Fold DUF982 domain-containing protein.
Amino acid sequence: MAIFYNSGSLHGTNLRMARFIRFDRAAVDREEMMDYLHFFSPVRISRGQGHPVEEIDSVAEAMVFLRKWPTGRRGPVYQCALNCCSAALSGQMSPEEARKAFTGFARITRLLDDDMMLPAASESMAKVYALRR
């Protein structure tokens, strides 16, 4: 939203209104940005048998998951995923690039749900089993 004024100066009421409109626009922009930060398809996290599968479907949810990750298990792959999600939140990276980094983190830590590890139709099952070793 652009605000144009006919007069050369802003007077009391107009200045307060301009500040309110700018503040309101920033809140709308933040909400719109959060909508854009959703992944095209969720990353499915499985913590093992007996635990429900968790679907992470946005950069914000990935950040929450990463921040809860145990400090002693935070390595370079964790740091890469965290950096990518931070970059996506600040608009320096696309949500899909952040999703790829988060998916890599989930795969390395063996949290990625088995359904997400299925190959494309042209790949053989031998390649899938080779990746898991």
